[in-house]
Write a structure and sequence with these properties.
The chain is α/β, with parallel strands linked by helices and 245 residues long. It is 48% helix and 16% strand. It has a seven-stranded parallel sheet with strand order 1-2-3-4-5-6-7. Helix 4 runs parallel beside helix 5. The chain is globular.
């Protein structure tokens, strides 16, 4: 594991803990991103809450930097690198809202507009932006919005590719668009145990195991040799459970 997408509490008591955590992760060669988002954020075309999250990440990095500069002054130790959040991962799923059922095009336009605002702000501060998306935006008539999101709303897309056996087919459009605009692509595999509702057996590799997951990932790489495709697991707790099995 080389990258961790971590939710960070806004409470002051947790921020110091997270500072230590980010430092420890970097010492182990792990890059940390700030993971945040809520479906309701997709309803604001101005992206106010999305932009607030970017500012939170910026403020967090500033606090870490101040801390390490103060420590360097105190003990005279030279720090080659200061642990920083590499970027922000937005997990906003507006398609889960009732407003989406009523007017999906309007909600998609609003979400993309907000993401463009947040992305522009993040670029000003040198923060990478990754946006989580389902594999089905194009299948639900939202290919135009999907293209605009990839083109002008992020550095990379992380596709929740949660359907065993269909991983190659389900990201064909996303691969094409990521390649067209020079953006990164991450295929996310579900590892949580099926609960019969939000996670069905067909969605997860919890019982199939990591060997089957790896075979699937290899088939994705072979199908799209001209696009760099990274892999991510959802989530760390579930990964530990599967590894124990």
């Amino acid at each position: 594991m080389t990258v961790l997408y971590q939710n960070i509490s806004s409470k002051n008591s947790r921020q110091e803990q997270m500072s230590v955590f980010v430092e420890s992760a970097m010492n182990e060669g792990i890059t940390v991103y700030y993971l945040t988002g809520d479906a309701s954020w997709g309803l604001d075309p101005d992206g106010d809450r999305l932009c607030e999250a970017v500012k939170d990440a910026v403020a967090y990095n500033r606090r870490i930097k101040r801390k390490f500069l103060a420590r360097r002054e105190a003990d005279g130790k030279q720090w080659n690198t200061i642990p920083q959040l590499a970027g922000i991962v937005f997990d906003v799923e507006p398609y889960t809202l009732k407003e989406w059922d009523e007017n999906p095009g309007k909600v998609m336009d609003s979400f993309v507009s907000g993401m463009k605002e947040a992305y522009a702000l993040a670029q000003d501060y040198g923060l990478e932006v990754i946006v989580c998306i389902p594999f089905h935006y194009d299948n639900k008539g939202q290919q135009k919005g999907l293209e605009e999101l990839i083109k002008n709303g992020c550095d990379s897309i992380a596709v929740m590719n949660y359907y065993r056996g269909a991983e190659v087919k389900n990201i064909a459009t996303e691969v094409e668009l990521a390649s067209k605009y020079g953006k990164g692509l991450i295929t996310i595999y579900e590892l949580q145990k099926a609960d019969g509702s939000s996670v069905k057996e067909i969605n997860t590799y919890y019982n199939s195991g990591l060997a089957a997951l790896e075979r699937s990932y290899q088939s994705v790489l072979e199908a799209y040799p001209n696009q760099t495709i990274s892999i991510a697991y959802h989530d760390y707790k579930a990964l530990k459970e599967v590894l124990k099995k």
